[in-house]
Design goal:
The protein is mostly helical and 316 residues long. It folds into 2 domains: 141 residues, no CATH class; 152 residues. The longest helix is centred in the middle third of the chain and has 38 residues. The radius of gyration is 23 Å and the shape is flat.
């Protein structure tokens, strides 16, 4: 390891974008050979984190667009690879070694404390990079660089499941990002815009799945998600009606199916428990929406509605 580490760190810190990119590709392979204990006890985890972090902000216009796309996406891959190795749970083998030297009750207590500490550090690690890197990068590049924004949305969709319910802490930051994309009236007119739109739907889906406790109990958050979903649905419907190309209409159907998945997930989230207050409020909200526009029922696949079929072409 002492022969590989110095040149690898040099690659991660070089001014050459090509060499830095190569270093970021090598790092995940190297990390697979290490253990969480080694990364923690030697401080290598923090060293690698500090080496990767600057590349997360290699953004246009200071960095050429194509180089930025490669560097940012690869740097986030390296961050996720570091996360997966550094904060991996203890293996069965290590637990069995502890059992030989400690009473069973003390072993369980020690394991619980260790797991809690690792989890706390893991969440702190993810939240740090969400705040300092991803959200900062979004505010810096929006709306001028849609290709970079698409990459950031894909990263966000992968980051949210790792955060789980801790995503609730940043709903105030994440939902406006999703809203700015899905409620943009012109975003579906370009290919880059449609790519952003699809990634934003994935982010919204992960938000619903990870933050369901808050969305179910907080009427304000639930209405915000509803507003985004309905606005996106209507935008896709109007875009499909204006398009004459069959391929575009088929693409619209695929996007509608993705929105259907989020709509069903939201319904299941609110109706997860037989809480009459939450379910009643939600049903009333949906009923009001359906009275305004009956096509909204297709979004949630409500009883008595016609679903979007696989080979159906949206009619003008």
């Amino acid at each position: 390891m002492h022969l590989i580490l110095p040149p690898l760190l040099h690659l991660l810190d070089t001014s050459s974008h090509v060499l830095r990119y190569r270093g970021l590709l090598i790092l995940p392979i190297f990390l697979k050979k290490l253990t969480p204990q080694l990364l923690t006890q030697t401080g290598l985890g923090s060293v690698f984190e500090d080496a990767i972090a600057p590349t997360l902000m290699y953004l246009p216009t200071l960095t050429p667009l194509q180089e930025s796309e490669l560097l940012v996406s690869t740097a986030w891959d390296a961050i996720f690879a570091l996360h997966d190795v550094w904060f991996a749970l203890p293996t069965t083998t290590s637990n069995s070694m502890i059992i030989r030297t400690q009473p069973m009750s003390q072993t369980k207590l020690t394991d619980n404390v260790t797991t809690a500490n690792v989890e706390k550090t893991r969440i702190k690690f993810l939240l740090k990079h969400l705040r300092d890197s991803l959200l900062h990068a979004w505010s810096y590049t929006y709306p001028s660089h849609p290709r970079i924004l698409t990459i950031l949305l894909g990263i966000l969709a992968g980051l949210i499941p790792k955060l789980g319910t801790h995503t609730i802490l940043h709903l105030k930051d994440v939902l406006p990002i999703v809203s700015s994309v899905l409620l943009d009236p012109f975003i579906l007119s370009t290919l880059d815009g449609r790519c952003m739109f699809k990634e934003a739907i994935n982010v919204l889906r992960q938000v619903v799945l990870s933050s369901w406790t808050r969305i179910r109990s907080d009427h304000g958050r639930r209405m915000e998600v509803l507003r985004i979903l309905v606005g996106a649905w209507k935008s896709v419907k109007e875009w499909a009606e204006e398009e004459e190309e069959v391929e575009r209409r088929r693409e619209a159907i695929e996007i509608q199916k993705s929105l259907n998945v989020v709509g069903r997930a939201l319904c299941k989230t609110v109706m997860y428990e037989n809480d009459e207050d939450h379910v009643g409020d939600f049903e009333r909200d949906l009923k009001r929406l359906k009275e305004v526009d009956e096509s909204i029922a297709d979004l949630f696949w409500l009883p008595g509605t016609k679903h979007v079929e696989k080979d159906t072409v949206v009619k003008r």
